């Protein structure tokens, strides 16, 4: 690719998005630059504190349980109180709790604070995703989600490598750095981001008011809940990268710095590939993209059973990273597509719950399987789960209209009273893939 072509591709990828999006993007980047706890908790407990893989899995599971509990409540607060206050409360609480986690030593205290950190850290996710859907035009949403995911992984790549070496010096220092960076995010939100929650549109005389969206509405949306279930399976696989992978590498004699380098491949590749791959998949069949991403995730982790060197571990990370690059923008676009405008917080909360459930179940499963049967059985299980998810995505996407995706509206069967696909057919708006500028994508 020539310099001029590269410059044009970058310009097409970043131009035309509102200023508020870039402040939200910056907040995401700052937050991920300070990421430490979720990535290095397993190593901290097994190497620094000398606990078993099962205990490390239990603590990580409590972290995930906190996220699961918070996701639903945060989704409701996002719709009722607004996106901005929810983010402020979540991020400031996370900063304080992570600082506390740096100093607690008793195992019960570590487990309890980890639960609270999981709650606070996950509470901002529905608000961030709902605000992004609010402020970005439908045709630009997949591009926006891709750029945000790119920021997450740019920060993750830098923090993983740096934090790996910080951990060799002091785990406590890493915890305190995360606390400071998270508080910086809260300050940035407070200073730069206005509230974006849509006003309820007035009802014309003689027309029927749009039905309100409650949690029951979301839970009865059959197609959407199927997507949530598949997201749980994918989350179970990906969470092994921060739970089972460091434990397995530690058992093979690798240091925290080695793990930081291996897992850093994930962030580096996403930084390099996310934008060009998003442009590439813009006009591809989303069903095939989701199927392929599930297979890459499952079999990428499955290949870890054959890794015996740092280079081979890094290679397996590269394989399942390709799954993330494809899955993230396509699946987020589908979530927004199936979510009614005035129920975005609740829908995003339930969707976030899927990842929290993965965070809860993955460490319990991973730690137990490693302790009882060995890591090879866990990696084989990941391949099996990826296959099941691929079949599920194929079935989920059947019956959805081809071509430009339709965004769910706040009228009629909007929230999916059992299918979700019916809702998607009302008021079509472009919400697919990223961008050539003459046919902009969305999410």
Brief synopsis:
By secondary structure, the chain is mainly alpha-helical. It is built from 18 helices and no strands.
Describe the structure.
The chain has 443 residues and is an all-alpha fold. It is built from 18 helices and no strands. The longest helix is centred in the middle third of the chain and has 29 residues, at 141-169. The two termini are 27 Å apart.
CATH architecture: Up-down Bundle
Gyration radius, in Å: 21 Å
Shape: globular
The portion of residues assigned to helices is: over 70%
The largest sheet, given as strand count, sense and whether it forms a barrel, is:
none
Estimate what percentage of residues fall within beta strands.
under 5%
Number of helices: 18
The domain count comes to: 1
The name of the CATH superfamily reads MFS general substrate transporter like domains
Which residues form runs of ≥5 with pLDDT under 50? 203-209, 408-443
Mean pLDDT: 78
Query: What's the order of the H and E elements?
Result: HHHHHHHHHHHHHHHHHH
N-end to C-end Cα span: 27 Å
User: Can you count the beta strands?
Assistant: 0
Structural class: mainly alpha
The CATH topology name reads: Growth Hormone, Chain: A
| CATH C-level class | Mainly Alpha
């Amino acid at each position: 690719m020539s310099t001029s072509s590269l410059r044009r591709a970058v310009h097409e990828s970043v131009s035309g998005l509102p200023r508020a999006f870039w402040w939200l993007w910056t907040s995401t980047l700052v937050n991920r630059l300070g990421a430490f706890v979720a990535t290095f908790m397993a190593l901290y407990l097994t190497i620094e504190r000398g606990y078993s893989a099962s205990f490390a899995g239990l603590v990580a599971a409590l972290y995930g349980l906190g996220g699961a509990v918070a996701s639903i409540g945060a989704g409701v607060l996002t719709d009722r109180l607004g996106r901005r206050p929810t983010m402020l409360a979540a991020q400031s609480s996370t900063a304080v709790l992570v600082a506390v986690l740096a100093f607690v030593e008793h195992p019960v205290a570590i487990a309890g604070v980890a639960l609270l950190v999981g709650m606070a850290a996950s509470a901002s996710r529905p608000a961030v995703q709902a605000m992004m859907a609010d402020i970005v035009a439908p045709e630009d949403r997949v591009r926006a989600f891709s750029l945000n995911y790119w920021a997450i992984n740019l920060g993750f790549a830098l923090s993983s490598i740096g934090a790996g070496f910080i951990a060799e010096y002091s785990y406590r220092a890493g915890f305190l750095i995360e606390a400071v960076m998270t508080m910086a995010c809260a300050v940035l939100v407070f200073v730069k981001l206005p509230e974006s929650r849509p006003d309820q549109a007035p009802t014309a005389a003689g027309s029927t008011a749009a039905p309100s969206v409650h949690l029951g509405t979301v839970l009865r949306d059959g197609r959407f809940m199927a997507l949530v279930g598949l997201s749980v399976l994918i989350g179970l696989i990906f969470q092994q990268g921060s739970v089972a992978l460091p434990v397995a590498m530690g058992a093979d004699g690798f240091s925290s710095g080695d793990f930081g380098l291996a897992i850093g491949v994930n962030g580096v590749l996403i930084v390099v590939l996310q934008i060009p791959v998003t442009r590439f998949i813009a006009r591809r069949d989303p069903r095939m993209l989701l199927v392929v991403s599930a297979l890459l995730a499952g079999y990428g982790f499955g290949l870890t059973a054959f890794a015996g060197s740092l280079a081979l571990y890094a290679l397996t990370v590269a394989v399942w990273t390709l799954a993330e690059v494809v899955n993230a923008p396509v699946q987020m676009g589908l979530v927004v597509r199936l979510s009614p405008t005035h129920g975005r917080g609740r829908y995003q909360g339930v969707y976030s719950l899927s990842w929290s459930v993965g965070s809860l179940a993955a460490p319990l499963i991973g730690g137990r399987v490693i302790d009882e049967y060995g890591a090879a059985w866990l990696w084989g299980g990941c391949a099996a789960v990826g296959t099941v998810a691929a079949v599920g995505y194929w079935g989920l996407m059947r019956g959805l209209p081809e071509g430009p995706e339709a965004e769910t509206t706040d009228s009629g069967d909007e929230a999916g009273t059992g299918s979700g696909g019916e809702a998607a057919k009302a008021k079509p708006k472009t919400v697919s893939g990223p961008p050539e500028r003459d046919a902009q994508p969305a999410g």
